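User: what does the whole thing look like in 3D?
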Amino acid sequence: MGEFALLIFSFCLQAAIGIMLFTALTKQLYPGKEFKAAAIIAAGLSVVGIIASLAHLGRPLSALNSLGNLGSSWLSREVLSAGLFMGITVIYAFIQYFKTQQESLNLVLRWAASAVGLLTIFFMSKLYTMASVPVWHGLNTFVDFYATSVAVGALLFMVMSLKELEDVDRRIYGFSVLLAVILQAASAVPYAAGLGLSGMAAQASAEILSSLSIVLGLKWLLILGGAGLLLWPSLQKGLGAKSANIASGWIYAAGIALVCGQLLGRYIFYAAMIVVNIGVT
Amino acid sequence: MGKMGFYFDMTSCIGCRTCQVSCKDKNDLKVGVVFRQARTFETGAFPAPGVYHYSGSCNHCARAKCVEGCPTAAMHFDEDGTVQHDKTKCIGCRYCTWACPYGAPKFIKEIGKVSKCDGCKDLRDKGENPVCVDACPMRALEWGDIEELKLKHPDTTSDLAILPSSTVASPSLIVKPKATALQKEFRYKEV
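Assistant: Here's the predicted 3D structure for the full assembly of 472 residues, as structure tokens:
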């Protein structure tokens, strides 16, 4: 699998976007809280993602050339919006530590990062669906990318903000994760079933998926298991110290399971790539 | 000047690979990289077996997916409608290798960039043909204004069973097919 850099880029960016989205939503509900750790992790993930994307290039030092075709290239648009997202997120994280009193600026930055981030995922999905790679075509890529962002973002936000979220209603995170992964699974099943009925390249991808059936099974076990595991601690509120510790343990375990599952899913996404070609139509 | 492209007479092609070798030589391509490739396909079984060869390169498509998708605009249309690649802009992102349904752009690791058939632009600027056209001993390849080529060779198609649909990118390619090449079932034959 030669697309390791892109795996890191797409996963880290989507996770960071999800974290910023849940930071913005939660700050609307609980304005008094800060969520500094989540801001730092989002900024860190976006920086790691962008650096990984440079590693994919044959000429990383000329990366800015990639802004040269915004008129028709979805990749060009993705580069611009991903760069913008990283910039806003890093500034936001910086402000959390050094200019904490700027709440109106914080508000703008949080929502700007969320909006640009969601747009980035759209561009990212679009560029894959426009390639001559049938396994990436269709709505499934959009659902997969957005669901990863919401599920991993909500969970990492929760993990990074455990203390601050102790006394609040955490159901929104548990149910967001669950809803995202259910949609992800609901989209993947008919999509995988239809793949073998398409052209030769899609059938070749279906064969690769079939050979990875154990990895595929593990992916869904971890994703659905992680989301299920998160439900109990999400429903608890105002726990004693001992129960709170157990709930935190569950959240960490759910986080590890879900992140591993989504990473496996992204590995499969790239591993199944077969480009339409002469003799492979 | 109209849009330029290739005519390929499959009924004359004997699969000798001279086009492929001449292209590789002209462009000084290393092992594993080819801008034009001749492939052999089999159809049917005894008592009605079939075989045909297809010599393919960049088809300089009218709606080139590589041009549309290239983030740097390194892939671009030349005045004659051919798809050209500006190496000074290329960053080696390889998106064109995913976008092209004919597999024409090739990533060359040594330079960290993509390269592809330019229709031998340097030769054409001197009034000559692309090297593959002149090298073919069977005169199975022809280069010219694609609309004029279509008038000259009316019994041609841009759609073969082995090719992606021409509606995807509108290739500047016409092929005089063998009947077997229109059959849906085929097998790639390693030669």
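In plain terms: Residues 164 and 178 of chain B are 17 Å apart (CA to CA). Chain B is about 20% helix and 25% strand.
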